[in-house]
Write a structure and sequence with these properties.
Blueprint: H1 9-17, H2 20-35, E1 38-39, H3 47-51, E2 59-63, H4 88-101, H5 112-115, E3 119-123, E4 128-129, H6 141-153, E5 160-164, H7 166-169, E6 181-185, H8 202-212
Parallel strand pairs: 2-3, 2-5, 5-6
Antiparallel strand pairs: 1-4
């Protein structure tokens, strides 16, 4: 797992990735990737950090762990590789965007389009064994992503946090709600989607906050420009 990100995250995370627990994560993953199929590919584990520099973050979306199906996970929460069918949760996110903003979404599930605009797509756990959801819980990723949220929270410039589902909501205690906008909802999975996610209007609310604070709004469409 390469940890050189080529942007401001390198300096911000340097101390954290030198800690013993992060070394333990590395050692665990070396064994896992050699013995099993693990997602995302090693070079994409930290893709969220590579695609959205710290100072560019406008909106943080926190997921659970990566998709565990073949060729789906690409290191960005809720995102899939180009050409891969969108999983149910991502389809539901697109339905909520259409409901909120009236945007006609396409079948493109690669959310790099959002990442380039400042949407930081962070999973709580950054790796998973194929076919085994939550298989990399408690190897240290939760501690690492808690630190990442703390770093973001400490930034003077405000941002929006979208916390969907119980895993994401656990990060709420790390965020200063007087400085940042925090919006919570049920998870967009089919089990809970119609219990409040469809009508949450988080996308328009996020843009309202960004504009109010002198930033440009996010284009939530998924059409490549």
């Amino acid at each position: 797992m390469a940890t050189s990100l080529g942007n401001s995250w390198d300096k911000l995370l340097k101390e954290e990735i030198e800690k013993e627990y992060f070394s333990n994560i590395r050692n665990f993953l070396i064994k896992e990737y050699s013995a099993y199929t693990v997602y995302p590919p090693k070079k994409q584990i930290l893709a969220a950090f590579e695609k959205t520099a710290y100072e560019d973050v406008k909106v943080v979306i926190i997921g659970q762990d990566p998709y565990h199906g073949d060729n789906q996970a690409n290191g960005l929460a809720f995102s899939v590789n180009k050409g891969v069918e969108c999983p149910p949760s991502l389809k539901n996110i697109f339905k909520a965007i259409e409901y909120d903003l009236g945007i006609k979404m396409t079948s493109n599930g690669d959310l790099s389009i959002w990442a380039k605009q400042g949407v930081f797509l962070l999973n709580t756990i950054l790796t998973v064994r194929a076919g085994c959801p939550q298989s990399h819980c408690n190897i240290g990723w939760e501690k690492f992503t808690n630190k990442v949220v703390e770093i973001l929270n400490n930034r003077e410039k405000p941002m929006v946090f979208l916390l969907w589902g119980n895993n994401a909501k656990q990060k709420l205690k790390l965020i200063d709600t007087n400085k940042h906008l925090v919006l919570t909802s049920v998870h967009p999975s089919p089990l809970s989607f119609y219990h409040g996610f469809l009508e949450c209007k988080h996308f328009s609310k996020a843009n309202e906050f960004l504009l109010k604070n002198g930033m440009t709004a996010i284009d939530w469409s998924n059409q490549e420009k």
